[in-house]
Amino acid sequence: MNKCFNILIFLFISSVSTFAQTSPVLLEIADRYWMQPDVAYNKAGGVVTKLDVWYPRDNDKPTPTLVYIHGGGWIFGQKEGAVYQFLPYLEKGWRVVNVEYRMVSDAYAPGAVEDTRCALRWIYRNAAQYKFDTEKIVLTGHSAGGHLSLITAMLPFKSPLDNRCYADESYGEGPMKVAAVINWYGITDVNDVIKGENTKNYAVMWFGSLKDREEIARDVSPLTYVNKDTSPVLTIHGDKDSVVPYSHGTRLHEALEKAGVKNKLHTVSGGDHGMFTKQQYVDAFADVWKFLDEIGIK
């Protein structure tokens, strides 16, 4: 566990840059884990969306599987910059699926949500081949990635937002079960950030000039779908967040509590948007492992 925490600290305080790409840590990763890059999981609007699959070299049995969705306000970012974010899960012997999705340059809302739903569908369709334990699938992401993790887990089975996914009879007729969501300061009420006092430029850009933006925003807001069957959620949010208001975390927590859903809000005191101290990150991940352990995922 100490080794995992040491890597974790390095993970979050190191910028994903040219330095990181040549880091000895990445050389160690290459020695201990396989990575199958750029697996096409869908095509929509002329854009082929891809994901990377990471798995330990020394374990060919089904393992808990992390689905990592990068942030960037739905308008920028790439999966290649996310390795340090999910390294702690690799260290625990998990498999990791690192998902790319269409951003605003290729698709306005709800394009990103359509893509991440299709990625989850791909994971279920290919679980046997890649040894994903479908009883232990955990979604996580930061900021917009937190939002996409939540909405991907919460949308009902056969949602209209699944209609852009590849058709495949082997997908089956049952819902795509998600064991838990680890939500790092994700948006939970999209309408709140496209209008009013909490309006954010990144959200406005994601919707462009769409005429039915408020309806779409409601359809892609996690708060819309909270019910007694919602997957367990751990939210980590700084109470001084200037990008995604802290109220998004508290409102989700309150809604989940009311619905009787297992959840926890880990508040980072004085924390701005992802700007936490080393100890705050260590404390947050201690809660991650504790939360997952409580629901039977190790």
Would you write up a description of this structure?
With 298 residues, this protein is an alpha/beta fold. It has a single domain, classed as Alpha/Beta hydrolase fold, catalytic domain (Rossmann fold, 3-Layer(aba) Sandwich), CATH 3.40.50. Helices cover 36% and strands 21% of the residues. The chain has eleven helices and eight strands. Strands 1-2-4-3-5-6-7-8 form an eight-stranded mixed sheet, sandwiched between helices. Helix 1 runs antiparallel to helix 4, helix 1 packs across helix 11 and helix 5 crosses helix 7. The N terminus is likely disordered.
For the biggest β-sheet, the strand order reads: 1-2-4-3-5-6-7-8
Tell me the Rg in angstroms: 18 Å
Fraction of residues in β-strands: 15-25%
CATH-scheme architecture: 3-Layer(aba) Sandwich
Instruction: List SSEs in N-to-C order.
Output: HHHEEEHEHHEHEHHEHEH
CATH homologous superfamily descriptor:
Alpha/Beta hydrolase fold, catalytic domain
**What structural category arises from helix and sheet content?**
alpha/beta
Question: Could you report the average pLDDT, rounded to the nearest whole number?
Answer: 91
Measured between the Cα atoms of the first and last residue, the distance is 12 Å
Main β-sheet: number of strands, strand sense, barrel status?
Answer: 8 strands, mixed
